[in-house]
């Protein structure tokens, strides 16, 4: 019987196609099983990791809770002993406070000094933005200085104000000059200047980096040091731009966390007889507190 070659070729091709489809389907089924197994394994591993992270998170939360409780106890203890710790340490010392920037408030320092037995004889606040940038105010100061027989230029106005502050603290005060500068809004002050301070506290720090320390703080500190007035530089723990390094370069004792009870304590002991650089920042090379055990 004659076999049609075309039919034979088609039959063979169909057989091989069927075999190929069968192999493909078998491979796909096996591959699907492997995929499902891998997926199950991955899910199990993720569940283990999740449980592990969950346990670690709970442990950390418990540790934080314990640390907060301990911190609360520490703060309670420090607040209880703080008044007795600083009591009488600054007895009969006359202290002046100068705030060289108005970005931050330092209202608690006066209370600290008084609690330690000291006297805040004068307080001066400088408004550097107005003093440095207001040309109208500068001209008014130039005109006033001319009436007083002093000739100054625009670029010497800041120096003029700094010198008048130094004179008020260390020499005979010209209260008329201070009142004029106050009326112009470049400074504010309170207290009395007929007693020279035994110590001056410079309060710095600002919300942004400026050239104010170079124009105000550094010249003022140098003038005060020429009169042999002891000075300490301080700032809050939360200032954006720190002045402490400027003060350290002038060899001042410093406290960088005056808003905290640790900083208040360090201030009192540093003024008393424990000079150093105290606080919680990198600039605090003397540690958190002076050696209060050895302080008399």
UniProtKB/TrEMBL annotation:
- Residues in coiled coil: 36-70
Recorded hits in InterPro entries, A to Z, give: MctB (IPR021522)
Instruction: For this UniProt record, give its keywords in alphabetical order, as a comma-separated list.
Output: Coiled coil, Membrane, Transmembrane, Transmembrane helix
Pfam families under this entry?
Answer: MctB (PF11382)
Can you quote a single GO CC term? membrane
Q: Which domain of life is it from?
A: Bacteria
Please list every transmembrane segment annotated in the UniProt record, as residue ranges: 7-29
GO-annotated biological processes: copper ion homeostasis
Question: Has UniProt tagged this entry with the keyword Nucleotide-binding?
Answer: no
By what name is this protein known? Copper transport outer membrane protein, MctB
Q: Which organism is it from?
A: Caldanaerobius fijiensis DSM 17918
